[in-house]
């Protein structure tokens, strides 16, 4: 990492090849054997072949927890994940007189382990099978919407068949944008219990202020335990259930990481865009991100202003405000990072090199290029409606009652169809989720706030050029501010959807009743629905064609990579992936170096006594005492807290176990540094780092701060 | 610098001995021979004896420029100082159509060198003589005010005699709080010209945002030239004047600093409090700083609020607001730093150790301790009025017209006395300064703003306990908000001091006319004057006794230091001092390291194109070109900008030359890091750093960015 000159030149907009992306890659386990050489060069001491099958140890110890990741760490179903991933479980078990978020929790014995909210799940992947031929056969010869529907239908059938087996949750994962399909079969553990959680002031030390920041000092971990019926099969909570005998578990290491050490990580990264077209990078950077930040910041202003004059409304929108701010901050950071990495130029150059290689290749090269050009034309066409589409996407996302009405109309429309033919999200399996949303509205809705947000978004719509307008919207809201205000006044003063019972009744009501309802908001949703459906239909047409055509781009990329002796991983899609790399310092800017391991000294330095820097007294006392025993770092001579690696991660990797060269658990992934927010699009090895809890900190907390000797014993670890 | 554990413990309030203060010290040149051993250990290659006399080379190349420092760098009177020290000169030569602040300036030849504002001075120290016996003899046997007056009278006489010699400016410096006195004789060069200044976007790159910050990327330097009459004597500007033949000059080095290198610096540090009583540290930290920050922040709010509703007033108070903010920020930083260094405890422990040593010493130990105890009692007594004194000090500082009226009354009172007997600041030599202040009011006064500020300060006064109240103030303003408002309304609606001619006339008016003026503001000042004089008188009584008694504390400290084989330097007092140490990295907090040398990559990283990060296009182009020639760092392979040392500095050290082990000029001091704002009280070697312009950056700018080959030649440097 000596990048002083490249950095300055990059920032000046001068195109330069980035350093080799040595540790870029969210690899499918099956790809690891082909990476044996670089794995060993990075320091891995095990057999790469042992990592190839995610249904065998050690990868079958890695589980999906909520939308994130965790790992079995004992034979008795003990699961280690992040405090923030288990947050709902801790909150669910908190009472006003016993707030486990604030106090933390240690189950004295198994009987004291607290049941999670009933919808909380741990999924263990037990099958991962290629179904590409089956899926593509059905779609063969089709285009557009027909292609999309054929793939969807096959996928639904595969899922349905797979879920015939009791206790299984199945899905079909699309790899390489449609080049490959895999059926994923997961054991669905439904009785999950809280075993050990540090207090918020350890588990979320620094909170939003330190979020994305390094140096970090957060004990972001929690221990859960999965239970099953006496027959060993998944079951809902019952006091008679027994701990799940995990097929494999990870052993926490007794020594810790230091700069340069090998590290690897397994988890369920959500979504990346690394293999998108150069034009998509350009559009994201030049339009998508700046435009999103602009409209989000306007919405933030509205919520903040109204929240000041109407504090009760402010409270209801606190969560939405926080989410808006988080999105705006993330988008801004992503933009900053992509610019710093000169992403438009770098990606354009890489694509150009690939095309040059393709032009010289034999075989199907011409047909491949023709398909790529078709895909490019589709992408270019989609840009024509981008301003409108941004607003249409935000309407249901930023509203409560308006979204309810749209969902109710859609639900009414889909309900009449056989379950398998319904739109995803409106099948019977989705009903509980929709009901939850309808209930949640009660805590999050304020009429004045929703009208203000709609006035902003629809006001922006009214200013769009004619080519992007929708007749249904123009008919409903007119073309000026006065008519928009009049419509909103009429609709919101008349609607009865503010009442929870009324909303919930919609889920059982006769479709025609909903569609012909005289409730003005339901009627408005019915009036607008054709516009939303038309947009969806156009989207599916395009998606279908892209699903058909993008694989050409991916195949060209694969061939080009192969010609250079490099492997290529499919963009992340919430399936199990493995990253490897090293513990590495960060040079965020000129003259500044962040060492890759933090210590408890930083907790004391940051501590103000005020949330979120209000470390508990027992922690401060233990730090002052300096009694770190076997968990102290042998060189730093003090207790470490978090560490940094160059591993390739993204959202969904929360809770991913980090392993050392011998496959022992040394860390728990929980965040990225701010400089790598742009990594979902571009992995820049100068800045991309992942942030982990050092397992020695966990061990020390369990030994000295919030003692749990029974757990240290179960974890097969020294008592101190 | 391995301070992880000490830091955490310190922050917890646990008393620990700080690391040895290896490089603490603003030494009088005469002390350097006794420091020969540590100087050589630090890496100095010259003869320490050569540094003993500040009237001989190399120290006589170091000059006082404005309130700061500079150095001769050529035989022809070329002076190197900071851009911010020469700012007034650059501004004075700017015109709307030719803004030298924005554009920078390069004099093509001597004829193009631009005369500075006539009051701009460069002072060359030509005499430094101990006058302790003379001063103390006159004071012997006296106490309180009489002691103070005796010292003042002797000092004035010494100054007056010394200034008989044409072209000399003289002063008496008090060392060790009254243990020692020195007569300082300085040649007063009055024809100073602007030779070379980079544009603001180089010389002040980062401005307030980067002020006190590291990493830093500022080219904060300017070249001036001193001229004298044809007879070689100081003279006011004349086109016939000739360059001053400097008795010595510093040679700019051709190689640059790297971590661990020896460095030394000479300059005129303003004021430090390192040898104050432990109780003064405690009072500063527990009361003085927090109380000042609180009242300053209220004044900031007032100026900002009124500035919003009355933009014209806002513009007039922009400078005062900026100064208020700067003070509040500095005080907050000082408080933070002193707490981080656990200064109360550390100083109390050190004092206790000194007392323990004293108790075991023979000789005058008992008499010494008795004097110290008397001084302690005086200091404790002063605290009783601290809230009132803070407000009384702020009244003239934060007002324009109110201050004018107070000054006018005082001037009227002093004018009647023989010049030598007048209060300092009201002698004939001070008239030009007062006149300047009276003129300046015009640009900085707004009646509404001043009344709002007075309402705040006097409102606070009204809430003081009776013991701290002043009858004159109570009579003038009453004891409630209504009577205060009524007085201010009457005074400010009636005063004629808003008129510049009226103000200036006061300086020539008959004292009785002023004292009996019917102008309501002058009358108010006359009414309040006895209270201010009483406070001043009490202060002088105390100062006199402290001047008499503090030397006992210093002598005890000296003896204690001597017993440990250590030297002690007098607290800074704007006299020439030398610091030595090394180029050293900074570990500001856990896991963060700032390397001690920055590079041009940082300029590009910070550059937004918006002030203050709007590097000029030629600079960015030159960086992109990467043509650094002989000025590039041989290891970093790029152009350096600023560097960091552990040298002991404070305000007034701006423009101090930084020398390497061979006495060559490697840097120009211009700032400190934020973590060392508290260093005026406590030098904490973990955090204390000084920030310098790397002379290689100056050389590169003169060679490649804003070329001045004639100056490189005069500086005896390579052309590129």
Q: Poorly predicted ranges of chain A (pLDDT <50, ≥5 residues)?
A: 1-20
The name of the CATH architecture of the largest domain in chain A is Beta Barrel
Share in helix of chain A: 40-55%
User: Can you summarize the main beta sheet of chain A?
Assistant: 11 strands, antiparallel
Report the sheet-strand fraction of chain A.
5-15%
Inertia-based shape of chain A: globular
Gap from first CA to last CA of chain A? 37 Å
Oligomer: homodimer
- The secondary-structure class of chain A comes to alpha+beta
Organism (chains A, B): Pseudoxanthomonas indica
EC number (chains A, B): 3.4.14.-
GO molecular function (chains A, B): dipeptidyl-peptidase activity; serine-type aminopeptidase activity
Keywords (chains A, B): Aminopeptidase, Hydrolase, Protease, Serine protease, Signal
List the helices and strands and how they pair.
2 copies of one chain form a homodimer.
Chain A lengths: L3 H8 L24 H7 L19 E4 L2 E5 L5 E4 L5 H6 L7 H4 L1 E2 L7 E2 L6 E9 L1 H8 L4 H19 L5 E8 L4 E10 L1 E7 L2 H4 L3 H4 L11 E7 L13 E2 L18 E6 L10 H32 L1 H6 L1 H23 L2 H18 L4 H18 L3 H12 L3 H15 L15 H14 L2 H16 L8 H7 L3 H14 L5 H7 L4 H5 L4 H44 L13 E6 L3 E4 L2 E3 L2 E3 H7 L10 H9 L14 E6 L11 E3 L5 E8 L17 E5 H11 L3 H6 L6
Antiparallel strand pairs in A: 1-2, 1-6, 2-3, 3-10, 4-9, 5-9, 6-8, 7-8, 9-10, 10-11, 12-13, 12-18, 14-15, 16-17, 17-20, 18-19, 19-20
Helix pairs in contact in A: 5-6, 6-22, 9-11, 9-12, 9-17, 12-22, 13-22, 14-17, 15-22, 17-19, 18-22
Family (chains A, B): Belongs to the peptidase S46 family.
Enzyme class (chains A, B): hydrolase
Keywords (chains A, B): Aminopeptidase, Hydrolase, Protease, Serine protease, Signal
């Amino acid at each position: 990492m000596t990048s002083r000159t490249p950095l300055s030149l990059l920032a000046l907009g001068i195109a330069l090849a980035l350093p080799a992306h040595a540790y870029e890659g969210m690899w499918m386990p099956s790809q690891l054997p082909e990476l044996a050489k670089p794995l060993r060069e990075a320091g891995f001491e095990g057999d790469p072949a042992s990592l190839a099958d995610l249904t065998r140890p050690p990868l079958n110890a890695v589980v999906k927890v909520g939308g994130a990741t965790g790992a079995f760490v004992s034979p008795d179903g003990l699961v280690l994940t992040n405090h923030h991933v288990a947050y709902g479980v801790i909150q669910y078990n908190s009472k006003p007189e016993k707030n486990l978020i604030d106090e933390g929790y240690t189950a004295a014995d198994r009987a004291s382990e607290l049941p999670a909210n009933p919808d909380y799940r741990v999924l263990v992947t037990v099958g991962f099978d290629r179904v590409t031929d089956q899926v593509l056969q059905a779609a063969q010869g089709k285009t557009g919407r027909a292609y999309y529907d054929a793939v969807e239908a096959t996928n639904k059938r595969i899922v349905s068949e797979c879920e015939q087996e009791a206790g299984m949750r199945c899905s079909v994962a699309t790899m390489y944008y449609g080049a490959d399909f895999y059926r994923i079969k997961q054991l669905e553990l439904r009785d999950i219990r809280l075993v050990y959680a540090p207090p918020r002031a350890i588990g979320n030390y620094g909170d939003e202020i330190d979020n994305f920041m390094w140096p970090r000092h957060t004990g972001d971990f929690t221990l859960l335990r999965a239970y099953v019926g006496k027959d060993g099969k998944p079951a809902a909570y019952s006091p008679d259930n027994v701990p799940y005998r995990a097929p494999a578990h990870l052993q926490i290491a007794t020594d810790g990481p230091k700069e340069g050490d090998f590290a690897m990580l397994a988890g369920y990264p959500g979504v990346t865009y690394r293999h998108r077209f150069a034009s998509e990078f350009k559009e994201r950077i030049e339009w998508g991100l700046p435009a999103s930040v602009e409209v989000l910041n306007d919405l933030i202003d509205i919520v903040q202003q109204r929240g000041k004059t109407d504090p009760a409304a402010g409270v209801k929108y606190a969560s939405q405000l926080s989410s808006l701010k988080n999105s705006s901050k993330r988008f801004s950071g992503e933009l900053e990072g992509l610019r710093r990495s000169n992403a438009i130029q770098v990606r354009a150059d890489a694509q150009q090199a690939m095309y040059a290689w393709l032009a010289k290749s034999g075989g199907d090269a011409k047909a491949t290029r023709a398909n790529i050009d078709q895909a490019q034309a589709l992408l270019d066409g989609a840009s024509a409606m981008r301003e409108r589409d941004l607003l249409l996407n935000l309407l249901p996302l930023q509203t409560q009652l308006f979204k309810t009405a749209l969902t109710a109309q859609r639900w009414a429309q889909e309900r009449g169809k056989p379950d398998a033919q319904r739109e995803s999200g409106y099948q019977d399996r989705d009903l509980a989720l929709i009901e939850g949303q309808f209930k949640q509205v009660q805590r999050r809705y304020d009429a004045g706030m929703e009208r203000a947000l709609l006035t902003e978004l629809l006001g922006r719509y009214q200013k769009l050029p004619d080519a992007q307008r929708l007749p249904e919207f123009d008919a409903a809201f007119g073309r000026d501010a006065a008519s928009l205000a009049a419509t909103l006044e009429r609709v919101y003063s008349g609607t009865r959807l503010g009442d929870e019972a009324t909303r919930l009744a919609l889920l059982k009501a006769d479709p025609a009743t909903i569609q012909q309802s005289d409730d003005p908001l339901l009627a408005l949703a019915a009036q607008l629905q054709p516009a939303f459906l038309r947009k969806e239909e156009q989207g599916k047409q395009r998606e279908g064609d892209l699903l058909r055509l993008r694989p050409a781009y991916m195949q060209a990329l694969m061939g080009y990579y192969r010609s250079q002796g490099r492997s290529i991983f499919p963009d992340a899609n919430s399936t199990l992936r493995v990253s490897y790399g090293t513990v590495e310092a960060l040079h965020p800017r000129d003259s500044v170096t962040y060492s890759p391991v933090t210590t408890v000294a930083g907790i004391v330095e940051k501590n103000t006594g005020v949330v979120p820097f209000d470390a508990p007294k027992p922690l401060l006392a233990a730090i002052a005492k300096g009694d770190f025993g076997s968990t102290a770092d042998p060189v730093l001579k003090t207790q470490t807290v978090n560490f940094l690696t160059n591993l390739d991660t993204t959202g969904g990797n929360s809770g991913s176990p980090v392993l050392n060269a011998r496959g022992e658990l040394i860390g728990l992934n929980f965040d990225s540094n701010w400089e790598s927010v742009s990594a979902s699009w571009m992995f820049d090895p100068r800045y991309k780092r992942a942030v982990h809890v050092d397992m020695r900190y966990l061990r020390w907390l369990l030994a000295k701060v919030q003692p749990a000797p029974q757990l240290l014993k179960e974890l097969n670890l020294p008592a101190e």
